[in-house]
């Protein structure tokens, strides 16, 4: 019953902010670019308020605050008691974990590296470069080669100069290893899927991410000859995943104990939803204030990044939907499986790319493009699911016990 109430509360439909998320992101691009032109020192000053290690910025304090408030409302919604119940749903949960962690990260790397490093290589610019943060914990001399980059001084700060397309690739990789945003609850509900199973799989993926996000992300970044700041990657998982997760768990437990579950769901969660979106949009404004010049000089940049992300999403959705049919899952369980695999946890990807490579990096920009295309693309897939319900057997009563 708790599972059903949570799913019902979270996913009856998209609220005002979620429904127009693509519009808000587009407005953030405009505002950010204008801010970069009119007050170029503002965002740079904020990003400069950072914790430095070996003369390299590690954590931007204002951005860290924004990103925490972006992640906390997502984590506080997780009911860990339902994770154990999901163990009965062997086929849908097992298929979801297989697609998210054994397939999706590698197809993202293959598709993004092919398009960004081959098809769009000359369009992005063979000589185009990007300056990213030095890997946390590594102190290299200026002029030292590291991966595909070289250590340089930028405004007196050690940075790593890397090919721009590889920086975009890093952002795509971080999206590929961050599956399943909390907005999947909305997509699953709109597609008339099994809300209880969707909720449980979101929680399971959040826990799995604590272990596999850093391992797969670091491995694929290394394969792409990109800087692999392992210490920063682990610190990022701790700050932007584990910390909000722990804070969400204990605050949820305390609030329900003192205010009751109904107040928690109807009052507290209702207030938190705009907080996530507001923190996300503020981060995007700052990011685009840095990348405005790049976008104005090459307005097709967003398209070059969006195409591989679009193809990756369609591929993973098709794989999840097709395998669900082959395994004989009901439509109510097949739709969430496909949706969870297709969606990206862009909040984690943005937080990690910002911490690893910097707010002004091409990697951070690539993760934002993931936000830009997420809503319209997922709505398109929802409509596809609704039109193809007849492909699957219908289950007479919603449950999570399909094994």
Characterization of the model:
The chain has a single domain (2-126, 164-386), classed as Up-down Bundle (Na+/H+ antiporter like fold), CATH 1.20.1530. Strand 1 (50-53) and strand 2 form a beta hairpin. With 403 residues, it is α+β, with helices and mostly antiparallel strands. The protein has a 4-stranded antiparallel β-sheet with strand order 3-6-5-4. A two-stranded antiparallel ribbon has the order 1-2. The protein has helices spanning 2-10, 16-19, 21-38, 40-48, 61-75, 81-85, 90-119, 121-124, 164-176, 184-190, 195-223, 230-259, 261-297, 301-326, 331-342, 346-357, 362-387, and strands spanning 50-53, 56-60, 129-133, 145-146, 149-154, 157-163. The longest helix is centred in the last third of the chain and has 37 residues, at 261-297. Helix 5 packs across helix 12 and helix 7 packs antiparallel against helix 9 (164-176). Residues 1-12 and 397-403 have low confidence and may be disordered. The two termini are 20 Å apart.
